[in-house]
Amino acid sequence: MKKSVFFLMILMFFASNSRAQNNIRISTGFAGFGNPFDGFYYSCDIDIKTFKGIQIAPVFTYETSATGGNIYYYQNKDEGEQSFKSQNNSSGGKTSSLIELFVIINPFKYFKNKKLTDLDFGIGAGYGINFFTDLYYNIDNRSNELAGTIQRTGNRESLSFRLFYNYQFKKFSCGIIAGATDILGEGVSIIGVQFSKAF
After folding, report:
1. Radius of gyration (C-alpha) of the chain in whole angstroms
2. Largest Cα–Cα distance in the chain?
3. CA 172 to CA 25: how far, in whole Å?
4. Could you report the per-residue pLDDT of 65-93, keeping only the tens digit for each?
5. Rounded distance, CA 116 to CA 109, Å?
6. Which residues neighbour 38 within 8 Å (Cβ) at sequence distance 6 or greater?
């Protein structure tokens, strides 16, 4: 954990010396916890241009595969029995909140063709911390009782990867984004749309 904090501080130092125009980017779409479309994610970052074709971007990402409805709890006072009902026999899922610092490279910035250098393209990797929660519960169909629960919370170092392309409009840009988060842990794929605005 100390290594990750030191790494983030070094990158933020270089980012603080940048005076170039920066962008705020927001993206949302599907998160894959095994199936590419079994969850969703939301991400927000601010890119800080440092050197030619290189950006430093603090990124916050929230992703979840949580499903299911309400749990209804009943208790028979006379017999002391407990029973549960749910809209689904199995509910729960995973949630993660990642705080990472990305280094993003646009290789087209090194070409001499202006059409290529103007492309808003990025490919990069990020390192940081993942705060996660896993929660599952199951209802026994025959007894209508809570069959069991699994819950786990914690944090771990995270490594993520993403690439994106945005089409430029007059005041903002939008495009597509794909990648993978928490590669050091369970690994979650992301694919979605992205909106960007310079400031």
Report:
1. 22
2. 83
3. 10
4. 877 655 555 566 565 555 555 555 556 78
5. 7
6. 31, 32, 65
